[in-house]
Amino acid sequence: MAKRDYYEVLGVPRGAAVDEIKKAYRKLAMQWHPDRNPGNADAEAKFKEATEAYEVLHDPKQRARYDQFGHAASPGGGFGTGGGGGGFDAGFDLADALRAFMRDFGGEGFDDLFGGGGRRSRAAGGRGTPGDDLQVRLPLTLEEIAAGVEKKIRVKHLKACETCGGRGGQGETVCPQCQGRGRLRRVQQTVFGQFMSESTCPRCEGEGRIVSQPCKTCGGDGRKSASDTVSVKVPAGVAAGNYIPLRGLGDAGLRGGPTGDLVVLIEEKQHELFERHGDDLLLEMPVSFGVMTLGGKVDVPLLAGGRATVDVAAGTPSGQVARVKGKGLPGLRGGRGDLHVRLRVWVPTRLTGADKKLLEELRKSEGQQPPPPSRSLFARVRDAFGG
């Protein structure tokens, strides 16, 4: 499928100002963000598409190249990371899109769900290179999701060296490889002409300075490996794919740079009885033929413990779904889902002699003979099974 025009994706004119582009992207990103559309592949694709368009159009260099050459401005029809814009290549994934969104909008709109503050500022020109953000996966049971839970997790990360206080040592000189710029420039010849790209200087790792007397404990890095136990409070109603940012618990920055964040990614463990659908739960409930035919009551288990009673009307077909209101999962923003009970005829595999005799008499009864197949019958069966 051909790529859509980036201006069309964001819904802005070609002469739009950067603030207008940012505002349009923020609106789309908040609408299609995976946290607000769990399990929705179409929303995920639109979120990635909007993020890719924003990454190109909010950067003057990449935008100029795009305006001139369109999607052919770089190999593969996507935009690389040259020029400092942080753009994506043609195969960027959801994780890249989420990182870009968190970078520019991490404190706007989603942190309030988890009680987090705004994303820390990383002003250009500050001392040290920022530390990396880390990600850990936190599997939860449906019971934990329903009630909310506080979990302790073990995290391996880089902490500031205690010997040198994170500075890496004593005495600083200008990096001879990049002459203090922290970046190395490279000119690339393409069919569209010359393009200049930049990369981080490998010697000073973007600092522009090197330590003349490195710390013996950390080797001049200003950090050392550590393992800590951290506590994370998970609110009730989270879903797989939601994430909780813990500020300042990632890797320490290089030589005194700001510390990264720890991102806790929520996963769900499969439940032996209940199947989740948003805030609703589904339970497959076996019911005897007699109850389905004559009617009666069935006790069904609840996720939180205890049981609820479901009334089964006489002549209920197998696959019919009954609803127990308010017995699903709590919503992350309030409210509560329902428990849907799919009633299935239970066929016994072991019968006594008396059971067999009764069933033989029932089978011979003319009133118990099934009707011939028909399209209307198939339609009713399909509807009953949710097809």
Detailed description of the structure:
- With 387 residues, this protein is of the alpha+beta class.
- Among the domains are: 1-105, DnaJ domain (Helix Hairpins), CATH 1.10.287.110; 274-384, Urease metallochaperone UreE, N-terminal domain (HSP40/DNAj peptide-binding domain).
- It has 9 helices and 15 strands.
- The strands form 6 sheets. The protein has a 4-stranded mixed β-sheet. Strands 1-9-8 form a 3-stranded mixed β-sheet. Strands 2-7 form a two-stranded antiparallel ribbon.
- Strand 10 and strand 11 (280-288) form a beta hairpin.
- Helix 2 runs antiparallel to helix 3 and helix 3 (41-57) packs across helix 5 (94-105).
- The chain starts with 5 loop residues before the first helix and ends with a helix.
- The model is unreliable at 74-91 and 106-126 (pLDDT under 50).
Annotate the secondary structure layout.
Blueprint: H1 6-10, H2 18-32, H3 41-57, H4 60-69, H5 94-105, E1 134-140, H6 142-147, E2 149-160, E3 169-174, E4 183-190, E5 193-200, E6 209-214, E7 223-234, E8 243-246, E9 262-268, E10 274-277, E11 280-288, H7 289-294, E12 296-301, E13 307-312, E14 321-324, E15 339-346, H8 353-364, H9 375-384
Helix pairs in contact: 2-3, 3-5
Give structural attributes:
9 helices, alpha+beta, 4-stranded mixed β-sheet, 387 residues, Helix Hairpins
CATH architecture of one domain: Sandwich
| Classification by helices and strands | alpha+beta
Regions with pLDDT < 50 over 5+ consecutive residues? 74-91, 106-126
Largest beta-sheet characterization: 4 strands, mixed
| Strand content bin | 25-35%
CA-CA gap between termini: 30 Å
Mean pLDDT across residues: 80
**What's the total helix number?**
9
